[in-house]
Amino acid sequence: MPAAPEPAGPSGPTPTGPAAPSLPGGPAGERPADTAPRPAGPDPADLGDLPSTTNGNSPRSRKWRRGAVHATDIPTATEPGATALPREPGRSHRRAATTASRPAGATVRSLPADPTLGRRLAAPVEPPGDPGLDGTDDPPEQPTRRRAALVALAAAATASAAALVAGLLSWSPEPADPVETARPLTAGEAERLAALRVTNQRDVRAGVRVILGAGGGRTELVGWVDWARPLVYLDVSGPGAGAERGLVQGTASTLLVRADPAATPTPAPPPLVPPDDRWRLRELPAGRGLPAVRDLLLGLGTARVDPPRPEARWLRRETVDGVPVDVLQAPLPALQGAGSAPDRRPRLWVDRDARLHRLAGWLPDGTPVTVELARSDRPTLRPVDALGGRPGLPRALSDAEADRLARLPARLRAAGGATLTVTAPSADLRGSGWLSWAGSAAYLSIGEADDPGRRTLVRARPGSVARLVVPAGGAAAPPLPAPAGLVRAVGRPPGDDVERLVDAALRGAATAVPATAAVRLRDDRVADRTVDVIEVRGRLRWWIDRSGLPRRLELRTGRGVWVQLDLAPGRVPALPGAERPVRKPAKRR
């Protein structure tokens, strides 16, 4: 179909430009591109400003904008087929609302769909930011799109804030401790619980760390427990240690403390070889403090399987130092006085081999206690001499050892006497003096740590002891000659541990000990000499060197503490109450 000429616009005829796309079948007033050429001028898709003249035409007064539709491309009301755009209700217009009055760069509205292309065409609408078309002249009672958008945003923000506050109010933190679902023990768990203390006894030893109390008053104890001996060896520290700060060794019936107020407050294991001096027996109330901790640790070992515990409960599973454990709640014999309520029963961390790794509970006096066991920390412990010294392997005497024991009385009489030093941790006593086997007498001076202003002079004979209290002098040895009051004092049977030990040393020169009543414990060293430690009837120990002379004598007291009498055989002075040696008359030739 031939193209029809373009009607002239207000500015005169426009040269023919490139052909526009064909729009057949458009409504009245639209110019089909296949029947009329496009008005002269730049393509709307061109960018930038056009020059002031185009193809010799008169200069234009306005510049082209990026993506703008020029007024010459839109039919005006005076052009044939032009249709005036109607006024939009409620809007004020500064210019005539015709298609020609739309400025360049206006946004477009969709026109009726082209049946050939199957899509809607775009019609120009008002551009954003143009005065008079951006809603600035709207009446106050008519909200603009921007105002409506702001209202919508404010409403959304309010709703979000309300939801956030509601979520925060309804949120609760996760519990710090694992969720516990208590249930009765299975058969396997009950067997492990019953065998727990037997397993400890079989393992012999373990490292321990104990926290007694809480906060600023807690006491921390680090060391070891030996269930086979039994023995505990601990370093006591922490802010609540007080006068008990230092080293502790204890058996089932005895507790020895080596106080050290200047010790570091940081908990650390004690030395494997304990110091020899300043150990003292402490009588502390049972059920609290160090005695309660000792009873708890030693009570974790036994030779018999415990009876079933129907009140025991399984709580949860955990991991301790990489070892899977079951957390059980059950009563313990060592904590029976801590209360029988379910929430006061101790908790036990037990692995699948019936080994205890951790314990948390309360002592009989209500003090919280936590015990952690290091199952791989198992050194051989050395009790202090007051508790029997280094452990050995008791056995029967050899022939040589039995011969030395049988010849002991004769060797003592032949030696004449010995200088002696006595140590009694049970009463914190120390003394020195002399002993005469030839004269069957002993004379020594004893001082008490709690009363340094005085000393006790002791005159002993077999089965008889006399005492005299005197002011403490400069020398630790007893005065010579002995005071007249001691010489005239009436003797009485031995009373305390020191008197019984001196009496046993005197009687050793009178009666031989049968080999069947003695066992050899171990070899040891004292006074730079190797000795055999021979125990007689479980109560008296002779430390005999290889020459057959004694170097130490020990007596076990009723409290389980050993009182020591160190001997240095040699010449001694004349002692009060000693028998004069009887000289036999010389034979006549």
List segments where confidence is low: pLDDT < 50 over at least 5 consecutive residues.
Answer: 1-86, 88-139, 168-177
Tally of alpha and pi helices: 8
State the helicity in percent bands: 10-25%
Radius of gyration: 55 Å
% residues in beta strands: 25-35%
Task: Summarize the structure in words.
With 589 residues, the protein is of the alpha+beta class. Helix content is 14%, strand content 28%. It has helices spanning 145-170, 187-194, 196-203, 289-298, 399-406, 408-415, 484-488, 497-507; strands spanning 108-114, 119-124, 183-184, 205-212, 219-226, 231-237, 246-250, 255-259, 280-281, 313-320, 323-329, 347-350, 356-362, 368-374, 417-424, 429-436, 441-448, 451-461, 464-471, 518-526, 529-536, 540-545, 550-556, 562-569. Strands 3-10-11-12-13-14-4-5-6-7-8-9 form a twelve-stranded antiparallel sheet, with helices on one face. Residues 1-86, 88-139 and 168-177 have low confidence and may be disordered.
